[in-house]
């Protein structure tokens, strides 16, 4: 099964609307990974995501839990050895995406993202 690291924007997209993105995450066609802190990011932006999704709080929380069940969350110690390289690569692009790149390098897989710099 193909492994992919999910960028935050993919999970945000899956939360905001019913879409192919959400369907793919829930399908188990891929082994999906993300840094474990990603759900802290979601919590930080929860009100905005909730408003954009037009879901009530209960449905939103249920969807979030469902998505979490399909994503392997890995702690920083699983990719920390690749962080310096990832930061060097993304320093002048978007250094905040370094954990996603480091995790992808540690797992030897691709990143699923809507960010243009990951498509290069």
UniProtKB/TrEMBL annotation:
Cross-referenced Pfam families: PIN_2
Domain PIN per the UniProt entry, residue ranges? 5-118
So which domain of life are we looking at? Archaea
According to the UniProt entry, the coiled-coil residues are none
Q: What is this protein called?
A: Putative nucleotide-binding protein, containing PIN domain
Its taxonomic path starts at: Archaea, Methanobacteriati, Methanobacteriota, Stenosarchaea group, Methanomicrobia
């Amino acid at each position: 099964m193909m492994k992919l690291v999910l960028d935050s924007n993919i999970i945000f997209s899956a939360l905001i609307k019913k879409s192919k993105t959400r369907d793919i995450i829930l399908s188990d066609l891929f082994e999906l990974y993300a840094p474990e802190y990603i759900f802290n990011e979601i919590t930080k932006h929860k009100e905005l995501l909730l408003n954009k999704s037009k879901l009530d709080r209960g449905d939103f929380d249920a969807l979030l839990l469902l998505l979490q069940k399909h994503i392997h969350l890995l702690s920083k110690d699983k990719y920390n050895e690749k962080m310096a390289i990832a930061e060097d690569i993304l320093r002048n692009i978007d250094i905040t995406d370094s954990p996603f790149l480091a995790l992808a390098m540690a797992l030897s897989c691709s990143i699923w993202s809507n960010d243009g710099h990951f498509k290069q």
